[in-house]
Each structure stands twice: as structure tokens, then as C-alpha cells.
Q: What sequence folds into this?
């Protein structure tokens, strides 16, 4: 059976979904153990699931077959869930070359085949300069929609849920403080496995609740993974060579959740615990919201709404507390089905209401013409964009300095989410335009078809995009 360790704001819902489909969650946190009426083993995990730093989705890293098994259960949680395979997976080892040294707290490095990483100066002895080569391991991969580079370290580690084997350490130590930490160090002598030469062992905080059997299993698993990594590196030269990957002991996949996916995860969580409508949507909006959501649910005791994605999410309360609000500067985060995130710029919020409607105004620079509309783009033009939380489209009307309309462009996308600092969605290629003369047309339908043929977009999501575009076309033609 595939074993999975889960952490982050989606943990309860993910634990419920995996358990329903025969996967075993291990190393559960205290709150999860309290919520579920079952025992959770402290066994090694084949897969670890992390919530991404921006809370938009999940990193799923582990044994390749196990990662596929987990993705198979989560990537179809709703129509606006997207999955991509990571090009720079967690734990992979590369020969890297410094691209530019001397500035900031670290240096960008070339990992080969167009891949990049970021190496902190503190991880390297001596001065770091352009052209220096190091053997590095991926410590923190980055999702495709994030502009940051994966964090790499000039060391090797085998990290498990209970313990970590590291080239940078010697002997045995414990992150657990006090008497229990001393016990963990002492109990290591009772295990049948020895710490490999040149490596150090450190017990993690989660080992505080482990018995001797669990410790032994975790340690043996780490040593086995270490041996497998060393086998993969056996043919590599002693000194780092040309940039490129040397070993990929585990794989990483990324899941991005849209608005409907977050509400589907609410439903799964509601089977286990009191869950307000928009639980994951609110927590994804702002870190400060997590504590507020937890408090509200603890006080409520039981949900009073059915969690309908269009009616019961308390957008007004969330936006009053965390934003966005009238006068804010908001970025348009234009996601692409291939995982990229493109900024369409910032605008001023000129109106927002408790029902989830928001108006954004942007000043446009001159030069060229507006996409598909063909009308000239002049200095002094403004773009007025109207968003609504949960809607599968949004219109932008371009106006000249004299107030005249230069056309309307309607973007078809996954359901819009209005976060405190960013509007988020994934573009679905097809769009609808209304020219100044009143003619209406669906554009880029060929791009939508090509995306389906290339396997970039699922057929059901493409069909939804077509139906939305046709409905918008009918509405604009009246």
C-alpha cells in the first residue's frame, strides 16, 4: 500500500480523499490524529505532500509510482485542478555552474538543459564567482507558476519524516529537546543498522512519539535510499563537470487548485470536521486568514451552509478583513494551462462589493493595437476590467482619453478568485471580443483545439470553455 505524509492547509481534505481510495496516510500531525477516528502509523512515507508557499496548490514528491498513485486520486478533484511534472524534483542531484556571483545572499546557477537553481552563499566555503562549479542537491523545488528558482544546497541529504541522514553532520543528534531527545540518541545504539561512514543522523521532531520499531523502520528506509543514491552517483566524476542532472531518486509533481477545486476540498473536509463555506478559498487568500478560519469553525461547532460555491462563500466578510478593498493596487495573475503565471500588470480597485464584484482600472501606454480588436493603443487610454468571484469569464473595456470605447475583450478562464493582492485564474485560450462597431466574435478557438490535441488541456475543460464563450457571445450580440 502506498504511504503518504501530508502537511499544510489542505491536509484534512487530502487525508480524507486518500483514505477513501485505499492510500495510507502516515506520520499524521496532532490535529489530524484528533479529527480522524483511526490510527496513523509512523511508518516511512513513499510520498510527501506539501502545500506550496503561496497556498495555491500542492507539491507531491516521492517514489515515481507512488506519486502517480497519489496524483491519480487528487488531480481530478474538480474541473479546474491542473497537474504538471516538475523539471527540477526535490532531492535530485546536479552538477551546477554559477551564472553570476557576488550579489545578494546567493547566486543563480545553471543546472543544464535550460534549468536554473539558486545557491545560498552560506552553503559554500569560500568566495563564489561566475563559472564556479558545484555538486548540488535540490532542497526546495518551485512550482511552474512561481518566478523563483529552486533552492539547491552544496551537500547531500536523505530526508525522511522521522530522521535525516546528512553529509554535513557527524554522529547522532536529535531536534527533540530535553530528555526525550537524549533517549532518541541513546536508542539509536539498539538499532540493527549503523550510520554509514561519512554521514550523520539526526532525529526529527516527529520522532518524539516513535517507538523502537518505528525508529528502526525509518532509519533502515533512509539507509536504503542513501545506498540507492550513491549507486546512481557511482559513475559520476569526483569533481563537478558540465551542468546537468546526475541523479533523480524521487520525482515531483505539482497540483494547482482553482476555485471549484477548493470548494470540492471543502466538501471532503466537511465529512470529517466543521468546515465553513470557502474554508480553503479563504485560507489560500492570506496566511493571517488561517487562524481566523480555525477560530470561526471552532466557535460555530457545525456548518450552517451547504458550501455551495456560488452562494455561501462569505466574500464580503473575507474581503473586509483581508482585502481586496476599494483603493487597493491589485495584480492580474494570468495563469496558463502549461503551468506558467504571467502578470498582466497592476490596476487600481475602484469598486468592490460584498457579492464578489470588483472593478479594476489600469492606465495604458501608447503604441501598437489591442489584441484581436485591432484598435490603436494610445497614451491616455484606460482599461476597465470587471471581475466577479467564481465566474468563468471577465470583460475588459478599453476607452480613449475622450471616453470613447475602443472595444471590449472578454477572457474565458477558470473561475476567478479575488485574493487580497492578486486576481487568479487559468486562461482557457478562447476569448470573445466586441469591436467598437458592435460586431461580436469568438477568437482563438483554434488555440483551444490545439491545446486539447497536444494534451495540454483536458477535453471536459475545453468543452466548458466553448460553452462559456458561446454564452458570452450570445449575451454581447443582443
A:
Amino acid at each position: 500500500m502506498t504511504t503518504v505524509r501530508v502537511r499544510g492547509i489542505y491536509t484534512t481534505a487530502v487525508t480524507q480523499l486518500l483514505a477513501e481510495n485505499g492510500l495510507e496516510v502516515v506520520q499524521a500531525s496532532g490535529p489530524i490524529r484528533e479529527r480522524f477516528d483511526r490510527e496513523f502509523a509512523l511508518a516511512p512515507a513513499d510520498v510527501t505532500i506539501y502545500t506550496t508557499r503561496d497556498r495555491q496548490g500542492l507539491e507531491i514528491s516521492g517514489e515515481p509510482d507512488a506519486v502517480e498513485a497519489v496524483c491519480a486520486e487528487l488531480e481530478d478533484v474538480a474541473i479546474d485542478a491542473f497537474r504538471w511534472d516538475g523539471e527540477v524534483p526535490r532531492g535530485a542531484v546536479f552538477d551546477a555552474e554559477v551564472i553570476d556571483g557576488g550579489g545578494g545572499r546567493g547566486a543563480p546557477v545553471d543546472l543544464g538543459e535550460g534549468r536554473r537553481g539558486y545557491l545560498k552563499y552560506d552553503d559554500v566555503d569560500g568566495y563564489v564567482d561566475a563559472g564556479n562549479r558545484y555538486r548540488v542537491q535540490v532542497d526546495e523545488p518551485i512550482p511552474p507558476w512561481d518566478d523563483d528558482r529552486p533552492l539547491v544546497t552544496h551537500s547531500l541529504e536523505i530526508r525522511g519524516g522521522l530522521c535525516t541522514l546528512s553529509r554535513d553532520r557527524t554522529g547522532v543528534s536529535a531536534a527533540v529537546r530535553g530528555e526525550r531527545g537524549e533517549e532518541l540518541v541513546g536508542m539509536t545504539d539498539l538499532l540493527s543498522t549503523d550510520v554509514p561512514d561519512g554521514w550523520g543522523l539526526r532525529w526529527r521532531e516527529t520522532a518524539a512519539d516513535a517507538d523502537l520499531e518505528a525508529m528502526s523502520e525509518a532509519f533502515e528506509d533512509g539507509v536504503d535510499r542513501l545506498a540507492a543514491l550513491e549507486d546512481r552517483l557511482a559513475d559520476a566524476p569526483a569533481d563537478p563537470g558540465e551542468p546537468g542532472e546526475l541523479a533523480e531518486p524521487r520525482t515531483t509533481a505539482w497540483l494547482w487548485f482553482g476555485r471549484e477545486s477548493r470548494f470540492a476540498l471543502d466538501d471532503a473536509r466537511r465529512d470529517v470536521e466543521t468546515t465553513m463555506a470557502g474554508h480553503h478559498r479563504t485560507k489560500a487568500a492570506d496566511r493571517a486568514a488561517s487562524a481566523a478560519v480555525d477560530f470561526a469553525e471552532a466557535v460555530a461547532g457545525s456548518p450552517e451552509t451547504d458550501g455551495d460555491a456560488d452562494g455561501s462563500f462569505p466574500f464580503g466578510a473575507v474581503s473586509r478583513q483581508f482585502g481586496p478593498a476599494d483603493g487597493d493596487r491589485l495584480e492580474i495573475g494570468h495563469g496558463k494551462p502549461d503551468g506558467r503565471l504571467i502578470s498582466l500588470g497592476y490596476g487600481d480597485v475602484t469598486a468592490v462589493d460584498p457579492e464578489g464584484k470588483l472593478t479594476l482600472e489600469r492606465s495604458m501606454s501608447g503604441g501598437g493595437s489591442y489584441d484581436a480588436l485591432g484598435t490603436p493603443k494610445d497614451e491616455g487610454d484606460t482599461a476597465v476590467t470587471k471581475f466577479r468571484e467564481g465566474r468563468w469569464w471577465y470583460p475588459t473595456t478599453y476607452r480613449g482619453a475622450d471616453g470613447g470605447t475602443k472595444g471590449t475583450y472578454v477572457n474565458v478562464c477558470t473561475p476567478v478568485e479575488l485574493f487580497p493582492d492578486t486576481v487568479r485564474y487559468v486562461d482557457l485560450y478562447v476569448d470573445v471580443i466586441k469591436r467598437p462597431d458592435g460586431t461580436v466574435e469568438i477568437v482563438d478557438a483554434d488555440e483551444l483545439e490545439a491545446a486539447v490535441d497536444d494534451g495540454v488541456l483536458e477535453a471536459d475543460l475545453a468543452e466548458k470553455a466553448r460553452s462559456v464563450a458561446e454564452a458570452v457571445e450570445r449575451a454581447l450580440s443582443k
In short: Residues 302-311 have pLDDT under 50 and may be disordered. Residues 93-155 form a domain with the OB fold (Dihydrolipoamide Acetyltransferase, E2P) fold (CATH 2.40.50.140). The two ends are 57 Å apart (CA to CA). The chain has eleven helices and 25 strands.
